């Protein structure tokens, strides 16, 4: 399919990915951090998240066809033995986001229609389960429009409510006695709430599809999309975070919308829009979750099991990928002759890859491609970089995941706690650690492949990639420890 996305539409899609339900927890982080530190941490998360996105875009340019980029493809080029770790990070992220959606559904709908939170969580299965059983989610594309409308409405509502209350003089006592302008209110909650901000900035899950669909996918244009998306998201987070915290002070809760008058017509409309967005958006993140779980299961079967490819069609599809079209490192050097470009560039052994179905034509075309490409690693032709589903496995993975998520949602009461745990684990892995590992291995490899020194700019980005690895691991362990420690004390 010919790429047709413009920079403007890509910015809209990336902003939509970054700005989600986690926006409502940003004011709660300001409650612990204070205004000044909260702003600084938001800017730090924005810069490091943007750096992670840029490193991933640089990594995509090491492929002979950057439009084939994906986490899976780059992982198999760099750390094939860590492929299940990449999938596990995606599982944690998507599982945690899905859990936070259900917890938020339990917070929102009782304020509109009454009833117990657990009742509304269970009632959501009427819509969510059928949508999760749909294998092609094209019909859910309008949920993005609903989601943007809901978040825009709620953001305007939060800011306008602050301005109105400030104009009426009702915030004087709060601003004077409850707001920490220059100091940190809660040192113990600092790292825990920082992971909430990191969670809010997570957008790398949809970066590669954006790169693949951009009509002009030059690094300059991709950087333009990333910079504008991060800037717009940061502005929105600061407006919501500061306005919400200054309005309610120490009374700010993890889900800000619960601080407002439940009888207000404007709040009821906002809650209904938010709840509807959560329900129709749940299947959009459930699909990559199910794929990642299936990938891990197949990897375990191949690596540790005794599966026979002749008996298990899934294993057969998985293993016969080794002779498919290779992807090699590009050599971005216009001074080199065509003969130089024909030399082997990045030698890798062929590896087993979890992929989708292939027809005879694709295999035949692959054999022709293998005669022309050398010194490369085998990866699939199509864009489906996961193991194929057999019918029974598709349904029992769906059942197990839904039961697990709903069981936890019925027992977990804190929306902010869920965001802290997911932000400390899945979000830091996908936003910092994994991009750092990929960038450190791939950036500059095209120069080394032709016997040239790494450019100073690429050397700088390799150091930044290494920084992202240690930064992500540090934030993960410290935030996870503080979050669990605080939670155990509160219990």
From TrEMBL:
Location(s) in or outside the cell: Vacuole membrane
> Could you list the residue ranges that cross the membrane?
12-30, 36-56, 77-105, 117-134, 146-167, 187-208, 229-246, 266-286, 394-412, 418-443, 464-484
Keywords (alphabetical) are: Membrane, Transmembrane, Transmembrane helix, Vacuole
Where is each Amino acid transporter transmembrane domain found? Answer: 4-477
Q: Which GO terms describe its cellular component?
A: fungal-type vacuole membrane
Keyword hit for Transmembrane? yes
Annotated GO MF terms? L-arginine transmembrane transporter activity; L-glutamate transmembrane transporter activity; L-histidine transmembrane transporter activity; L-lysine transmembrane transporter activity; L-serine transmembrane transporter activity; L-tyrosine transmembrane transporter activity
Q: Which InterPro entries match?
A: AA_transpt_TM (IPR013057)
Keyword Transmembrane set for record: yes
- Give the start-end ranges of region Disordered: 356-375
- A Pfam family: Aa_trans
Q: Where is the composition biased (Polar residues)?
A: 365-374
- PANTHER family of this UniProt entry? AMINO ACID TRANSPORTER, VACUOLAR AMINO ACID TRANSPORTER 7
Sequence similarity: Belongs to the amino acid/polyamine transporter 2 family.
Name by which UniProt lists this protein: Avt7p
Organism, by scientific name, is Saccharomyces arboricola (strain H-6 / AS 2.3317 / CBS 10644) (Yeast)
């Amino acid at each position: 399919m010919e790429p047709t996305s413009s920079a403007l539409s890509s910015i809209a899609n990336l902003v939509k990915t970054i700005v989600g339900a986690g926006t409502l927890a940003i004011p709660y982080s300001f409650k612990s951090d204070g205004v000044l530190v909260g702003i600084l941490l938001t800017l730090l998360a924005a810069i490091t998240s943007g750096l992670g996105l840029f490193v991933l875009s640089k990594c995509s340019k090491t492929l002979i066809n950057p439009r084939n980029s994906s986490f899976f493809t780059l992982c198999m080029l760099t750390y094939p033995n860590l492929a299940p770790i990449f999938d596990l990070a995606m599982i944690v992220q998507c599982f945690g986001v899905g859990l936070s959606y259900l917890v938020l559904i339990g917070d929102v709908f009782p304020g509109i229609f009454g009833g117990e939170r657990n009742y509304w969580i269970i009632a959501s299965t009427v819509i969510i389960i059928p949508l999760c059983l749909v294998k092609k989610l094209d019909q859910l594309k309008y949920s993005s429009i609903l989601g943007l409308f809901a978040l825009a409405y709620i953001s305007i509502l939060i800011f306008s409510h602050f301005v109105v209350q400030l104009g009426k003089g009702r915030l004087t006592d709060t601003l004077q006695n409850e707001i920490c302008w220059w100091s940190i209110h809660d040192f113990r909650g600092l790292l825990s709430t920082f992971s909430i901000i990191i969670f809010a900035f997570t957008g790398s899950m949809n970066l590669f599809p954006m790169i693949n669909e951009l009509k002009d996918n030059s690094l300059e244009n991709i950087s333009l999309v990333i910079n504008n998306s991060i800037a717009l998201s940061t502005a929105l987070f600061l407006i919501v975070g500061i306005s919400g915290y200054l309005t309610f002070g120490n009374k700010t809760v993890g889900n800000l919308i619960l601080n407002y008058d439940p009888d207000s017509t404007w709040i009821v409309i906002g809650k209904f829009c938010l709840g509807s967005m959560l329900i129709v958006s749940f299947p959009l993140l459930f699909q990559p979750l199910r794929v990642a779980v299936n990938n891990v299961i197949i990897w375990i079967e191949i690596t540790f099991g005794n599966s026979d490819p002749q008996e298990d069609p899934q294993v057969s599809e998985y293993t016969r990928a080794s002779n498919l079209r290779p992807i090699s490192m590009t050599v971005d050097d216009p001074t080199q002759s065509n003969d130089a470009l024909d030399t082997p560039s990045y030698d890798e052994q062929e590896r087993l890859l979890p992929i989708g179905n292939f027809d005879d034509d694709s295999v035949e075309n692959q054999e022709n491609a293998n005669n022309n490409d050398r010194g490369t690693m085998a990866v699939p032709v199509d864009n489906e970089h996961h193991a194929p589903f057999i019918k029974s496995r598709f349904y029992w993975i769906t059942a197990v995941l839904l039961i697990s998520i709903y069981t936890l949602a019925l027992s977990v009461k804190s929306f902010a706690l869920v965001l802290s745990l997911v932000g400390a684990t899945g979000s830091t892995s996908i936003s910092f650690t994994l991009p750092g590992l990929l960038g450190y291995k791939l950036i500059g490899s095209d120069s080394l492949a032709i016997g040239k020194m790494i450019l100073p700019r690429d050397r700088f980005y390799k150091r930044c990639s290494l920084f992202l690895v240690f930064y992500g691991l540090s934030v993960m362990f410290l935030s996870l420890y503080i979050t669990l420690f605080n939670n155990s004390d509160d219990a």
